[in-house]
Amino acid sequence: MAVALSYTMVLEESQLMMEKLEARKVLLQQAKENAVKARQARNSFQKVMNNGMRRPMHLILSLLFILQDEKTISNQKIIIDTMVRTSTVQ
């Protein structure tokens, strides 16, 4: 009789552990899905911001190239040339 009770308790404990593991598995799966969604949102945001910053920078560089060809005083010419030389927009 004692063996049967002990066996029943082990089975109940085992079942409880399985239920806890299953609940943990569900939580981990949800966390993984949330992380994937967050990564996708971050990548999308970075892409939009990258393109959003690139266009104005190209416009500014185009204006600097035009200014290089204009007659400017030497201090302005040095500044414009330095800005063009040090700019890196891909």
Automatic annotation (TrEMBL):
Keywords in alphabetical order: ATP-binding, Coiled coil, Copper, Endoplasmic reticulum, Ethylene signaling pathway, Kinase, Membrane, Metal-binding, Nucleotide-binding, Phosphoprotein, Receptor, Transferase, Transmembrane, Transmembrane helix, Two-component regulatory system
Q: Which domain of life is it from?
A: Eukaryota
Question: Could you tell me the Gene Ontology terms of the biological process aspect for this record?
Answer: ethylene-activated signaling pathway; negative regulation of ethylene-activated signaling pathway
What are the protein's GO molecular function terms?
ATP binding; ethylene binding; metal ion binding; protein serine/threonine kinase activity
Q: Name one GO cellular component term.
A: endoplasmic reticulum membrane
Residue ranges annotated as coiled coil are: 11-48
Q: Give the principal location in a single coarse category.
A: endoplasmic reticulum
Q: How is this protein situated with respect to the membrane?
A: Multi-pass membrane protein
According to its UniProt entry, the function of this protein is described as: Ethylene receptor related to bacterial two-component regulators. Acts as a redundant negative regulator of ethylene signaling.
Give the family from UniProt.
Belongs to the ethylene receptor family.
Q: What is the protein's name according to its record?
A: Uncharacterized protein
Q: Which organism is it from?
A: Solanum lycopersicum
